[in-house]
Design brief:
Chain lengths: 350, 600
């Protein structure tokens, strides 16, 4: 880990539309191991928020417990953060979102936090289609307790102590698709060019957006024989496509002539631009997304990129028919029926 | 056992029914009619953890003196459940009455010489009067209510009014019900002497009081308190708290212009998620609550510790039932006291409120939301199955329109502008309560990282021992501050009149007050204090110190409140004498008096 942040910044750092340079989106110094995949993901989150012109205080970052769940301290220091309890971030995020629908909710979790102790909350937050971005920093092991296998460790994968994992792994991306998540992507912490547009599109998605990011643990799961090591992942990665995210306000100039390119229009007119599409995969079709994942798996490949998106999405506020005004701004005047009504209630109980 | 010389407006009747046969509404009709005649009445549901088929009882005590606790001894048994009939026969007091369905002859083993039998051929009458099977089942209940109205001298027009109210909008159903009532009445007129010596006479003792369940009052209280987010997981006996909140929200929280709702209610996947959602919403500035019972509180321990340590307001209603584990899910107890007071690992303490009546349930919810935001900590409203799921005669609910929501120390953008550096856990006012900010308030000031890990005054993670200790000490100071903010106890005497005092809380109030009254008739005086909250304030300490013996009345096995008094007030164990009741039934005055007399 780094102890001191260098004071030097490029004198001509570019400002975004809000007038902020990218360092405005940074957080505290990371206390994770040097080379941890999670730090790369944090850097991608910082870059995405900067490029998306997000007001940091209009975003709330939430997490559970574990190495991954520490990361919200390391980005967006002007955002409120909530490092909750192990595996329970989804419920806290649900309550927070219901209280104020106007903020962006950004959740960070790990494979232990989501696939084991928090599996119940993970599946139910998907089911409710809470409007949030949910990133799992997936390294297949428990870092803080020194390297035990997690539920996403692949069967046959060898950990640092030489033990081979006998259990089948839980595939969070296909699980999310199965449960009806409206935006599902997979990426690799080392592929910033893919991860940044995915995070941007996820934040722009008006429902539950899930990104499973393979993020090697340099200390406990980067050995030969591990299927979550940097080397293994780099050798076995296969992208559905390259991706770019074109925000709504940007002038769009794209060539629709090439057959290898697809544009997915988001709810607000923003575009997701996908190149190098494989023939048998349509990101708007759940079944084809599932097939693509299964095919890759059978070839021992890690499929990355946008896997599935449903543009016709209704989030939890829509389901509950809550008022457009954030609930936390309502006052006694709007909430309290008053003493006259109570007289009527009393009368009905006599 | 208290003896009855006067049997007018003073008796206990028990209905033995089969669960799921529609008896509840018929039995309530009986209760409500007596209430409408101005006579204090207290019904208790004694029901199984079952949907349909098992025995269920409904016990009604009628008391001219206004004794609203339970009383042992059944004067009149309505026995329409063959499954429990033998037990039911045995439970009638000598000289009492046993009403049964005489469509079939009573088996000799049900015959006692010392009680009176009233046979009504309910099944035959129903089969004759109604063709539909469900109607035959339902109207059997109404027929016996009709018979009871003749036997007890219940005013018929009161029953008619109640039916008219019940079936408002479905007036077609009224004549069939009235017909059933009359069938029962006429059978008594033709076959038995009436009215009985046990009977009712109109009084004016109810005044403006209401008949309500505590859970409904909690739900309504949450609406009045401005709760906008409710998350819950169904569990007996707390389910109807949130169901009442839903019903009242349908009435009061739908915007007329848009049809949209000023409330979000989520049925969570479990109790862990329920309280997690409540905490998340409160963290983000919405008033939010959840309701559960003991097993749910066990599951919520982890989150309660987080909310205590990270200082997040939250309101939790614990409708206590008989534990441990699944225990007796449909029986009452006050056995979550220790669990709630110190919920979660590490050094934690939680503010508890102890309502005794539906009105106090309503008030407690108003107080709980204020206190949780003022103190930035969980507030647990400790009711029980008896209060929550039984109708109670209560003072009417009152809301003062001038009462404002006390939102506590929350800094807005303007306030943040004025301070140089915001410190989430700085004790600016020296009362242990720091200032908080809500997400989205200010672009550059006021953001902080909420966490269950140790941190310094500026919410920065630290493992520095001194910073950790400072924080834990500040939480204790906040606890001291809370003592003067929570509802004060009710003291029953202006100045002490006895060396003996009784101390009680929650639903033990009914039996305790009756016991005091009965002892007074024997010229035995005791002083009394009713606790309304934890932490205990100075008045509680003074009460214990100024008496030689303090009888601590509570409804659990382990004298949990007594332990709490010993731990928190360093009270002398020798002077704290336990009066315990933990059989799952509400405590009685007789039980209290017996214990007191043994130890005076």
């Amino acid at each position: 880990m780094t102890y001191v942040r260098p004071k030097f910044r490029h004198p001509e750092l570019q400002k975004n539309k809000l007038g902020y340079t990218v360092d405005y989106y940074e957080g505290a110094l990371s206390t994770l191991c040097a080379g941890c995949g999670h730090d790369s993901i944090s850097a991608s989150i910082i870059q995405s928020a900067y490029e998306m012109n997000i007001e940091p205080h209009k975003l709330a970052k939430l997490s559970g417990i574990g190495c991954s769940s520490k990361t919200p301290a390391y980005f967006l220091s002007n955002s409120h953060g909530f490092n909750s309890v192990h595996g329970r971030m989804p419920s806290v995020a649900t309550g927070a979102n219901l209280a104020n629908r106007d903020l962006i909710y950004f959740g960070v979790s790990g494979d232990g936090d989501s696939a084991s102790i928090g599996m119940g909350q993970f599946v139910h937050v998907i089911r409710r289609n809470l409007n949030m971005t949910y990133i799992v920093m997936n390294n297949g092991c428990y870092g803080l307790t020194k390297g035990q296998d997690s539920a996403t460790a692949d069967q046959g994968s060898k950990n640092k102590s030489g033990n081979v994992n006998p259990f089948d792994s839980i595939d969070l991306a296909s699980l999310a698709i199965e449960l009806g998540a409206s935006f599902v992507a997979q990426s690799f912490s080392g592929d910033k060019s893919q991860l940044v547009p995915l995070i941007k599109a996820a934040m722009n998605h008006p429902g539950f957006a899930f990104i499973n990011v393979i993020s090697p643990c340099v200390t406990f799961n980067n050995n030969v024989g591990s299927t979550k090591s940097y080397d293994y992942v780099r050798e076995h990665i296969e992208a559905t496509s390259t991706i770019d995210f074109v925000p709504q306000m940007q002038e769009i100039n794209v060539d629709y002539g090439q057959g290898s390119k697809k544009h997915v229009t988001m709810h607000d007119g923003s575009l997701i631009e996908l190149r190098k599409l494989s023939d048998d995969w349509d990101p708007l079709d759940r079944q084809s997304a599932m097939n693509a994942i299964m095919n890759s798996k059978s070839k021992n490949e890690i499929l990355t990129g946008l896997l599935y998106m449903n543009q016709d999405v209704k989030d939890l506020h829509h389901t509950l028919n809550t008022t457009d005004k954030p609930l936390n701004t309502l006052t006694k005047k709007e909430l309290c029926p008053g003493s006259e009504m109570l007289k009527g209630i009393n009368a009905g109980l006599r | 056992m208290s003896t009855n010389t006067n049997k007018i407006n003073d008796f206990v009747i028990r209905f033995a029914n089969v669960n799921g046969t529609g008896s509840a509404s018929a039995n309530f009709l009986f209760t409500k009619a007596i209430f409408r005649m101005g006579i204090p009445v207290t019904p208790k549901n004694i029901f199984p953890s079952n949907i349909q088929g098992l025995p269920t009882w409904y016990e009604v005590r009628v008391s001219e003196k206004g004794y609203l606790g339970r009383r042992e001894g059944i004067d009149f048994m309505v026995a329409v459940n063959p499954q429990s009939m033998l037990k039911d026969v045995k439970s009638v007091r000598a000289g009492g009455y046993f009403l049964y369905d005489s469509s079939k002859n009573l088996h000799p083993e049900y015959i006692r010489e010392d009680i009176n039998y009233i046979g009504i051929p309910l099944m035959h009458m129903c089969n004759e009067a109604y063709s539909d099977a469900r109607q035959r089942q339902l109207f059997k209940n109404i027929i016996y209510v009709g018979a009871l109205s003749a036997l007890f001298n219940i005013e018929f027009n009161v029953l008619e009014d109640l039916l008219a109210e019940q079936f408002k909008g479905k007036e077609k159903l009224i004549p069939a019900n009235v017909k059933a009532l009359k069938l029962g009445m006429d059978y008594i007129y033709a076959n038995y002497d009436y009215p009985l010596e046990f009977r009712v006479e109109r009084r004016d003792l109810i005044k403006d009081k209401i008949l309500m369940e505590g859970n409904a009052a909690c739900g309504l209280g949450a609406v009045y308190a401005g709760a906008t987010v409710a998350a819950w997981y169904p569990i007996t006996p707390s389910t109807s708290v949130v169901e009442a909140f839903m019903d009242y929200a349908d009435e009061f929280r739908v915007d007329e212009a848009t049809g949209k709702r000023n409330v979000a209610i989520v049925q969570a996947e479990d109790e862990l998620a329920a309280i997690g959602m409540a905490i998340g919403a409160n963290w983000n500035g919405a008033r939010s609550f959840t309701a559960t019972s003991g097993p749910g509180v066990s599951l919520m321990n982890e989150f309660l510790g987080l909310a205590y340590f990270a200082e997040i307001p939250t309101v939790l209603v614990d409708v206590q039932r008989a534990g441990p584990s699944t225990g007796m899910p449909t029986r009452t107890q006050q056995s979550d006291i220790m669990e709630a007071a110190y919920a979660s690992h590490g050094d934690t303490k939680h503010v508890l409120l102890f309502p005794s009546t539906p009105k106090e349930c309503f008030d407690c919810m108003l107080d709980a939301f204020d206190l949780s935001e003022q103190l930035q900590t969980p507030i647990i409203v400790m009711t029980d199955l008896d209060l929550g799921m039984n109708d109670h005669v209560s003072d009417p609910l009152v809301f003062d329109d001038k009462r404002e929501y006390k939102r506590g120390k929350v800094l807005d953008a303007e306030a943040l502008e004025k301070i140089e550096r915001f410190g989430r856990y700085l004790d600016v006012d020296k009362d242990g309560i720091p200032y908080r900010t809500l997400p989205g308030t200010h672009p550059t000031k006021g953001s902080y990282f909420t966490r269950g890990t140790s941190r310094d005054e500026y919410a920065v993670y630290t493992e520095d021992s001194a910073a950790y200790e400072r924080n834990m000490e500040r939480l204790l100071l906040k606890w001291e501050t809370a003592k003067d903010m929570v509802p004060a106890p009710q003291i029953y005497q202006e100045k002490n009149q006895s060396k003996n005092g009784i101390l009680f809380f929650g639903t033990s109030q009914y039996a305790a007050e009756e016991a005091m009254d009965l002892l007074k008739e024997e010229n035995i005086l005791v002083d009394a204090i009713r606790l309304k909250s934890f932490p205990f304030n100075k008045q509680v300490e003074d009460f214990i110190n100024s008496h030689d013996k303090v009888f601590v009345i509570e409804q659990n096995r382990d004298a949990q409140l007594r332990s709490l008094l010993m731990i928190e007030l360093d009270a002398d164990p020798k002077k704290l004498i336990s009066v315990l009741n933990f059989d799952g039934m509400p405590i009685t005055a007789d039980a209290i008096i017996n214990k007191l007399k043994q130890n005076f």
